[in-house]
Amino acid sequence: MTDYKPTAPTRSARSDQEKELDTSYGEDATALIKGAMGLVNVDFHELSRRLEAQGSPVPVPTLRKKVNGGQCKASFVMRIMDALDVDLAPLRKRDRD
After folding, report:
1. If we measure between CA atoms, which residue out of 22, 35, 38, 36 comes closest to residue 72?
2. Which has more confidence, 90 or 34?
């Protein structure tokens, strides 16, 4: 009798469209974070200090790499906005022409 060992499904290669969307949204996330940092006049050193005070330490070089590289999960963006005391609301529905 052979033991059955389930394996995780393998992810297929990402399409060019997925890569383009990730790049575009990554650039948007970078602009959003940097815009919020400018709004409250906070640099990466201060943002790193504020994240650490939240219990979420992120070294300055790592923070720069994530933000400038557009490699931020939504939860990380929200933690940054919280550290900056920036509210992203109100949200509104886009007009699609």
Report:
1. 22
2. 34
